[in-house]
Amino acid sequence: MRRTLYALTILTSLAIPALAAADEVYLKGGAKFSGRIESQTETMLTINIGDGVVGVAMTRVDKIVKGPSPLDEYDARARALGPQDLNGWRGLGAWALSQGLSAQARDAYGKVMALAPDDPEARQALGFVKYDGRWMTEDESYAARGYVKMGGEWMTPVAAQ
């Protein structure tokens, strides 16, 4: 299945080229954020980095280089898809993962799951595992196999004692 996901990601990336640029916010001291600037005032800048929004005081900003971001590309691709386009949403989810857009990948794969609840690619991308013929969360699979959780880690009942 991982080979299928890898192949799909490669094909999607070749079929619809991603934009390489993004809004780049360079901070004093050398740090950098890449994403899409959501707002900017004299005192504060917020940039969506794909998995959330980061606020930065303008006094910490060295320079800003604006450009199209993978978030812009995701939004454009999502707008072009119909709500029932199973393969389109699956491909967009794979593309978003390849771009490091985990929140957007979860959204796209969530749409796949709404259309095809047993879709293996979407289930795996969203962290589900198949155990005893049915999909479940990783925690549910450990519990189903008799493991117990102690100190945040799963272990056999014998090891827990």
Which strand-content bin applies to the residues?
25-35%
Q: Sketch the topology as an H/E string, one letter per element.
A: HEEEEEHHHHEEHEEH
Largest sheet geometry: 5 strands, antiparallel
- Count up the helices: 7
Cα radius of gyration in angstroms? 20 Å
Structural class: alpha+beta
Strand order of the largest sheet: 4-3-2-1-5
Number of strands: 9
The CA-CA distance between the termini, in Å, is 37 Å
Keywords for this structure?
alpha+beta; five-stranded antiparallel sheet; two-stranded antiparallel ribbon; 7 helices; 9 strands
What is the fold's blueprint, element by element?
Layout: H1 2-15, E1 23-27, E2 32-40, E3 44-48, E4 53-57, E5 61-65, H2 70-80, H3 86-98, H4 102-115, H5 120-125, E6 128-131, E7 134-137, H6 138-144, E8 148-150, E9 153-155, H7 157-160
Antiparallel strand pairs: 1-2, 1-5, 2-3, 3-4, 6-7, 8-9
Helix pairs in contact: 1-3, 3-4
Q: Can you describe this structure?
A:
This protein has 161 residues and is an alpha+beta fold. The protein has a domain at 129-160. Helix content is 43%, strand content 27%. The chain is built from 7 helices and 9 strands. It has helices spanning 2-15, 70-80, 86-98, 102-115, 120-125, 138-144, 157-160, and strands spanning 23-27, 32-40, 44-48, 53-57, 61-65, 128-131, 134-137, 148-150, 153-155. It has a 5-stranded antiparallel β-sheet with strand order 4-3-2-1-5, covered by helices on one side. Strands 6-7 form a two-stranded antiparallel ribbon. It has a two-stranded antiparallel ribbon with strand order 8-9. A hairpin with a 4-residue loop joins strand 3 (44-48) and strand 4 (53-57). Helix 1 (2-15) crosses helix 3 and helix 3 packs antiparallel against helix 4. The chain is flat, with a radius of gyration of 20 Å. Mean pLDDT is 85; it is low at 1-20.
